[in-house]
Amino acid sequence: MLEANDILTDAGLSREQKIARLKELLSEARGLQRAATEGGMDPNDGVTRNLRDIELALDQLNAEQPEAGAATL
């Protein structure tokens, strides 16, 4: 899985492309977190850290982010 920092530091991507890829990564990470929650997987497997890293990368790009919370999982 790509890391948020890989996307953030990719000089070949425009700001808009970085934001789009980070949002895709965020959606995938939320899906994994949802599966972990519903499927009894280990909640400490790094998914929460990945979500936070992606959110921080989006913040650095001043990207609009959807509301976070239980309803978005």
Low-confidence stretches: none
Q: Quaternary status of these chains?
A: single chain
Fraction of residues in H or I helices: 55-70%
- Quickly give the structural class: mainly alpha
Word description of this protein:
With 73 residues, the protein is mainly alpha-helical. The chain is 60% helix and 0% strand. It has helices at 4-8, 15-39, 47-60. Helix 2 packs antiparallel against helix 3. The two termini are 19 Å apart.
Key features?
73 residues; mainly alpha; 3 helices; 0% strand
Reconstruct the topology from this structure.
Blueprint: H1 4-8, H2 15-39, H3 47-60
Offer a concise description of the structure.
With 73 residues, the protein is an all-alpha fold. It is built from three helices and no strands.
